[in-house]
Amino acid sequence: MKTTVRTPRIPGKGRLARTAAATVALCILGGVGTAYAYWASTGAGSGSATNGTLQTVTVDALVPGDTLQTSLVPGGTADVILRAYNPNPHAVTIYGFTLNGPVTADAAHPGCVITGVTFTPPPAPLAPAVTIQANTSLQLTLGNAATMSSASVSACQGATFNVPVTLEVRK
Q: Would you list the DSSP string of 15-58?
């Protein structure tokens, strides 16, 4: 006689494994689909912006109340003093200076035709940076930026020199 032993069947054991496998597969496919949608999606639309116009920062020579601290003599150097006014509604930073024409003597010294004066601006960009706040002016002293050669004529004694400069500013 042959005897068969049956092991009792546990209900749902195979179903639990299939459900777990199906859940894992759905999670993986869902993640892949989400990643694909994220990287493959495109959009369309429009935008706009306006750009204001930077107003010219003006430069003046000595104004009442500004005083020179050094005098220019043949073979020597002196400071160049100027005042910059920022009419913009935002602050600007001075980037640098350049000479913008010949150096001339004041009207009280008409015989000073050969001034011998040169302008050496500080290197750009200025360090430390100089900022002019909105709607304000600032006195600037450029140390030893003017040099007078010994070729200057005697008629230049006591003259005040006009050093035309261009000021480069950036927002």
A: HHHHHHHHHHHHHHHHHHHHHHHHHH-----------PPPPPPE
